[in-house]
Write a structure and sequence with these properties.
There is one protein chain. It is globular and about 45 Å long. It has one helix at about 105; strands spanning about 5, 10-15, 20, 30-35, 35-40, 60-65, 75-80, 85-90, 95-100, 115-120, 125-140, 145-155. The chain is mainly β.
């Protein structure tokens, strides 16, 4: 399966459940399915759904990882079938897959104040945030062939209630 990767930023509130869902497409029209809308990875503009063909995930598995930086040996969060926080749609021909951030996986992470969300009107700090990187891989359960349809940055918004 030949899927073009998309660079997608995820903004996740620490201590909550966030379900990241993606729908890669066959390479004829490079696009990503984000929040219910097909977006061209070439132009960043919305596409007509008839222009895209979802990748068939029959016989595939999913794994993903989030790390503080690309060189970290140990992921801050690992997403895989063993820990049950990855998802492939019951109908794999839809191409829909994803992974789940949970309170159990995000609450233990340390907020480091690298980034601040600010009020667009007065510039005051709304919340402190920490940056991570992630990617997801789809692999063939028989051949082991691997593709990386999505990667990007995770901005983790620090929680106050614990």
């Amino acid at each position: 399966m030949n899927i073009l990767p998309a660079n997608i930023k995820l903004i996740v509130a620490q201590g909550t459940t966030y379900r990241a869902r993606f729908r890669p497409v066959s390479p004829s029209v490079p696009a990503s399915y984000i929040n219910g809308v097909w977006i061209s990875t070439a132009t960043g503009l919305p596409l007509n759904p008839s222009q895209v063909v979802p990748a068939d995930l029959t016989g595939k598995g999913v794994r993903a990882a989030m790390r503080k930086n690309h060189n970290d040996a140990t992921p801050a969060i690992a997403f895989n079938a063993d820990n049950g926080n990855v998802f492939i749609d019951a109908d794999p021909t839809t191409g829909l897959f994803g992974f789940d951030f949970t309170p159990e996986t995000t609450s233990p992470l340390k907020a480091t104040d690298e980034v601040y969300l600010t009020d667009p009107e007065d510039g005051s700090v709304i919340s402190r945030c920490t940056k991570y990187v992630y990617d997801a891989e789809i692999f063939d359960l028989v051949t082991g062939e691997v593709t990386r349809p999505v990667s990007g940055q995770v901005v983790l918004i620090a929680e106050v209630t614990r």
